[in-house]
Amino acid sequence: MKLNLTSKLLAGALVLAASGSVFANTNLADGQTGNSSIFLNVVDLTAGTDYVLDLSAIDASNHFNTFNAAGAQSISLANDANWTAFKATTGSDEVQYNVIGANTIGQTPGNGALITSTAPTGTSSGSVGFTTNAQIRNNSVDNYIHAVNGSTTASTQSLFVTTSGATANPDAYFGTVFQLASGFPNTLADVGTAQTFYRLTAVPGLNLNKAGVTAYGTWNLIGDTLTYTPVPLPMPVTLLLSGLALMGIISRRGKSSTDVSFSGAAA
User: Fold this and answer.
1) What is the tens place of the pLDDT at every residue in 178-213?
2) d(CA 159, CA 85)
3) d(Cα 99, Cα 41) in Å, to the nearest integer?
4) Spans of all domains in the chain
5) Model-level pTM greater than 0.90?
6) Secondary structure of residue 98 in the 3-state scheme
7) 237: phi then psi, degrees, rounded to nearest 5
């Protein structure tokens, strides 16, 4: 069941009217840089509005080449005027989100994408592993990033997009510009649904060859908080680390006891 993000808020409408930052653009690094930004999209497909957040502006490791898959993240959106304005427009049950970044530098070793998805990990149709080299090399993420970045002359880390009204910006609307032409497996899920974060990598060979797939942890958006949860360490590794830590403690205590005994002998 799809979730309502919030009821329409009068306060959000006031922010929309009064805040000059509400329609400010982001400064996302595109795939041609060879180290694209990772960013959050939240979209209401019924209202025709979306919210974009540059995650690399919050944590510099949130880039394609430097993403820390082992590090947990918790990002609050509560104080972002763009987020408040977006929530004020949501009244449907069609609020969905994704987290994504993509490199498109024209070289197989550098081409790839980081995407959230609830699709299975196999290689059958509809699975993440069904993605081909061609889909990695010929996606529309850069076009979407350029539209988002070019929204206004101001710069900030987030953007609120509408498709109607005096301030409409349909070119930067995720629901059409990105969703229908990305070439990736489905990257959207309902707000409140955890999604696995995958690294897709173009491999040497023909366009129809399957891309490489690596599964990381999970992203989730609940209320005003976006979280990333790493994959837990396997139990044997956890036990090994615990054992090594215990051995270290025992070793230090043994050394301390030896030192005391020698001091006594010398006296």
Assistant:
1) 654 456 778 889 999 999 999 988 887 777 888 889
2) 10
3) 6
4) 10-232, 233-267
5) no
6) strand
7) -65, -40
